[in-house]
Amino acid sequence: MQLEQFLTQYGLWALGIGAGLEGETVTVLGGMFVHRGLFAFLPAVLAASLGSFLADQVFFALGRGFRDTAYVQKIRAKPAFKRALAVFDRHPTGFVFAFRFLYGLRTISPVAIGTTDLRASRFVLINAAAALVWGATFVTLGYFFGQAIEALFGRLHLNAVILCAVAVLVIAAWLAHTITARQRKAREQRGTPDG
User: Fold this and answer.
1) Which listed residue, of 114, 118, 148, 176, carries a Cα 20 to 30 Å from 125's Cα?
2) How far apart are CA 117 and CA 97, in angstroms?
3) How would residue 68 be classed by pLDDT, with cut points 50, 70 and 90?
4) What positions does the domain VTT occupy (predicted)?
5) Rounded to whole angstroms, how far apart are CA atoms 127 and 49?
6) SS3 for 191?
7) pTM (2 decimals)?
8) Strands (E) located in the chain
């Protein structure tokens, strides 16, 4: 069954499940359904956000509950896991908020965060806020650009276009991080405290 048929047949439930399991492609497709008048905007954003939120909570719980098992220890040895933890150590709140926007780190990151000492209550709050931003972003992308994406690239290339959109978001996040880091460094050199 194709994604479009799945969404047509099962509606917002399918959007939530698809957003949690697959991610951006389903969520952008949900935005296209909003544009076509098949879904309302706010319920589509909430369904996608909830699906993403719940999936990440499950992965976090797996990391937390099984962090001492041989399987998780094996995953911890992987380079992506080590990269995720290295970024988390430097910017815990920012990383928890941004990991779902980082291609290649979306699934492994909540597991990695679950192995840290971050309080579960803090993860829930940041994860909920990030899921809402993520859901709104990709539903909106689908709403405004879905028809153009289909017209220009056809249905088969939707994943490639979404990856490009994610790359643009990652570059924007990197630029914001770089600017913030430079400003922080300049404040430290002047002896001005962060605030």
Assistant:
1) 176
2) 17
3) confident
4) 23-143
5) 10
6) coil
7) 0.69
8) none
If one counts every other C-beta atom within 10 angstroms of the C-beta of residue 136, the result is 19
Residues in the chain: 195
Contacts 24+ apart (CB under 8 A), 101-106: 101/134, 101/166, 101/169, 101/170, 101/173, 102/170, 102/173, 103/163, 103/166, 103/167, 103/170, 104/80, 105/80, 106/23
Q: Assign 188 a pLDDT band (cuts: 50, 70, 90).
A: confident
Q: Residue for token digits 């969520």?
A: 27
Is the C-alpha dihedral spanning 168, 123, 16, 108 positive or negative? Answer: positive
To the nearest whole number, what is the mean pLDDT of the chain? Answer: 79
**What is the per-residue pLDDT across 38-54, written as a single tens digit (0 to 9) for each?**
888 999 999 999 999 99
Residues 163-181 have pLDDT tens digits of 556 666 666 667 677 777 7
Our CA angle for 20, 136, 62, nearest 5°, is: 25
